[in-house]
């Protein structure tokens, strides 16, 4: 039996949202464990186990499982500041202000135990802000539902005190190096994006310390009252260094904010086409255009740029991919090294960031 503040009910609902019974029906439940004036809420989808531990007034130690969907919905309906949880027989009675809930509960012993990393091969120490910066730079380039499952993960490499995070779906790539983290051990891991997003969705303070641990098959991440354990992806991430082009030729420099705004405007027009393509015609001037396949509709504009001895040529790019890539750049200027055959390199003032998009034949 326990009484819990509802100040963190949104965070409890976030834990509940990870419950998924696709692998095992028991995973539609949330595991609730109350002891030592703390209550731990845990949910899993079979591949990832998420837990949140909150302070509470516990009068009697108890553990049980409850429908995650029902708990989340009820918490959303409560308006009082606290909730009292009482178990009688096979039912939970929750009282909060004038609201009352009765719901069936189930034996906690039937819920699988969370996997643990006993002897980590490597670890990373950072803060929430550093973790967000590291993974947000690459997350947009992760493949979705690709048969090449390794592309549906973020590749994280630890090399000494250097952490390299890379993601690609085969059409675009983002890679960021970070040397201000505290690391031990080395390795290359295929990390599910859900591992990091689950922690970041808890809205912890940016300065909160984070510990990430890896063994051969699992990764765990702990920060404050939140802990998450997930299986790692299978397969081998491609050697992306082979596709990073040189910076020697065809570089065109733009004002970053102006280019972002221009691409955004053109993106709206390109979305009208069955196959949206943003075309750059580069000569003494740079012209950006969008046209229909039969050339009956066309929209173009000369944009300001600093050419660096670029030969005359035309190249197309996916407007969504370019807009996503530009959104991750920072600083005043951005340089794009255009290429008609291999990847197009995008560089900003953050030298540790490598961004690629593949060209489209026009």
Structure description:
By secondary structure, the chain is α+β, with helices and mostly antiparallel strands. The chain has 3 domains: 2-110, DNA Polymerase III, Chain A, domain 2 (Roll); 122-231, Roll (DNA Polymerase III, Chain A, domain 2), CATH 3.10.150.10; 251-360, DNA Polymerase III, Chain A, domain 2. The chain contains 6 helices and 28 strands. It has helices at residues 9-16, 68-77, 128-136, 193-200, 256-270, 319-327; strands at 2-5, 29-35, 38-44, 48-55, 57-58, 62-67, 82-88, 91-96, 99-104, 106-107, 122-127, 154-159, 162-168, 172-178, 182-184, 187-191, 209-214, 218-223, 226-231, 251-255, 278-282, 286-291, 298-303, 306-307, 313-317, 333-337, 344-347, 353-357. The strands form 4 sheets. It has a 10-stranded antiparallel β-sheet. A 9-stranded antiparallel β-sheet has the order 16-12-13-14-28-27-26-20-24. Strand 22 and strand 23 form a beta hairpin. Helix 1 (9-16) runs antiparallel to helix 2 (68-77) and helix 5 (256-270) packs antiparallel against helix 6. The longest helix is centred in the last third of the chain and has 15 residues, at 256-270. The chain is elongated, with a radius of gyration of 25 Å. The protein starts with a strand and ends in a 5-residue tail after the last strand. The model has no long low-confidence stretch (mean pLDDT 91).
**Biggest sheet: strands, sense, closure?**
10 strands, antiparallel
Query: Briefly, what CATH class of the largest domain?
Result: Alpha Beta
Approximate helicity band: 10-25%
Query: Can you give the mean pLDDT?
Result: 91
The name of the CATH topology of the largest domain is DNA Polymerase III, Chain A, domain 2
- Helix/strand/pairing class, anyone? alpha+beta
The largest sheet has its strands arranged as: 10-6-2-3-4-19-18-17-11-15
Task: Give the termini distance in whole angstroms.
Answer: 68 Å
CATH architecture of the largest domain: Roll
The global form is elongated
Radius of gyration: 25 Å
